[in-house]
Write a structure and sequence with these properties.
Elements lengths: L29 E2 L7 E2 L7 E5 H7 L4 H5 L5 E5 L7 E5 L7 E5 L2 E2 L20 E8 L3 H4 L6 E7 L7 E9 L3 E12 L2 E12 L17 E15 L2 E15 L13 E18 L4 E18 L9 E21 L2 E16 L2 E19 L3 E12 L3 E14 L4 E12 L3 H5 L16 E14 L4 E19 L3 E22 L2 E14 L11 E10 L4 E10 L2 E5 L2 E5 L2 E11 L4 E8 L18 E9 L1
Parallel strand pairs: 6-9
Antiparallel strand pairs: 1-2, 3-8, 4-5, 6-7, 8-9, 10-11, 10-33, 11-12, 12-13, 13-14, 14-15, 15-16, 16-17, 17-18, 18-19, 19-20, 20-21, 21-22, 22-23, 23-24, 24-25, 25-26, 26-27, 27-28, 28-31, 29-30, 31-32, 32-33
Amino acid sequence: MTCKLRTLLLALPATAALAADPPPSRLDTLTVTASRIPVPVRESGSSITIITAEDIAARKVFTVADLLRSVPGLDVVQNGGLGRTTSVFLRGANSQHTLVLIDGIEVNDPASPGAGFDFAHLTVDNIERIEILRGPQSTLYGGDAIGGVIQIFTKQGRGQPRFGFNAEGGSYGTWKLGGNASGGYDRLGYSIAASQLHSDGFSAADSRLGNHEDDGYKNTTVSARADWQALDNLSLDAVVRFHHSEADLDNCGGPGCDDPNYRQDSDQVFARTQGTLDLFDHLWRQQLRLSYSRTERHTRDRPDPADTFVDNSAFRGEKFKLDWQNTVTPTDWDTLVFGVTSETEWMNADTLPTHSATINGYYGENRVKWLERFVTSAGVRFDDHEHAGDKVTWRVTQAVLIPETGTKLRGSYGKGFKAPSLYQLFAPAGAFGPVGNRDLEPERSRGWEVGVDQSFWDERILFGATWFHNQFSNLIDFQFGTGYVNVASARSAGLETYAEIRPLDFLTLRGTYTYTNTEDDQEQQLLRRPRHKGSFDADLTLTEAAHFHVNVLTVGSRRFSAFSIKRKLPGYVVVNLAGDYRINRWLTLYGRIDNAFDQEYEEVPGYGTSRVAGYGGFRLTF
């Protein structure tokens, strides 16, 4: 079941499962990202979508990026096939304006030009759910979240030991092997997963433009988590995730861009340890977490008969963060969350000295539920950035619950800021002139949204709509001959809608449509952002053992610009199919077809996309 579109899910319980008697645990979907503590989505005034483990299993895809394509208000752009640069644009914001977390670990790369996150290598292994929070979120999450937050949660082990093994293969010489183990004993829980993905791939530079050299990809992922209830009021946990990838690249997108010697190796390590202490009969909860992230990229390009360019560059971005969060609940209708963060990030490269930045933050949010119908939150944050100075941000949300009609009204307003990245500040001058600029000012944003969610027919019919508006100012842009400068401003406004219908216990239909109008300071549509985007999903349980899923993605036209060349890419529609059949309690067969009708399309001008492709495999669990 894809993207359940529990987008802001209602003042009522979450959608029932396909079974006639859904388990109680599904009646109150919780979100952690919206308020940094678990709260029912139906009581949140924020705009949020939750992708569950069931959704991930139904789609059968390799990467998180492919799951995000159907999320309302979010656009995914990939420069070629597996392992190529993959960016997300949330409500028209720049890709580096979205903060990405894995179990609370900030994984944005401090050594990338905009300190964003590349989704190219993030596989779905060991992931329990994904939460996508839209709009400025600097109040709770600091300077990298002026467009929104995407948080990935890994699986927690519990109960009897379970083991699994899966193997699959298919088009483009692709295969994947994986295994996992999870369980719990007394006060200890554990989960671990590992996988190896290999693909011969297709040309990153579009083969329809005369490029025929396949660009392969390899990915090794290991994810582990342990949870220990040391005392009745003290728990400890540790999380680690590792990716190693090898990707063949091309020089550019377009005719004559094949390069057989161009390659990038990447290593990513994300780790966190956390202690949670409950005091005074759960009146005061303290969480102390230390997290670390490191992304290393090594690019090599040797000369060949068609290309004399040589590249042997290496970048490493690291971040340590200490976060002390306090949750005080004096009554069952009032919750106060406040805390202190201190983080230091580094950028290392073989072409420039090591640079760093230290940021200290102080945040607080009060959440009040009154008369069982109104939920109000208000928060403020103060950040002290070593290079960008002091900044104050704030945010308020409101939810109004009307259970008699199955209605929820909601709205929010907030401000955010993003400090210049280390690369934007300190990158040395290049062949085209200056690059880094130590006088850059932080980027700023403010945004509001209003929405409604409605249910009918015992929650078998759900629909909702959100109107949003974001204003970005002081944006950092690169200009040849000048380098990075604060010159740009932009705005985005639009409408996000969703609908979910469960006419039969074994059939669920979902659809989304997003209209996003973006403009820069020259009143031109922002690059790579479509005005129109929609998706349709159907989940069908054919028998107790067989499940079938259909995903249809439609994306409207987009503007692109490279140097002096400007293009408008036409829209496209892609249909993806997936299904599985359980042979017995241990063995399940599954498969999927990507681009089932062999649609020819481009996400980036001159870069290739998959033609019709099929994959199949089996899963053993015991």
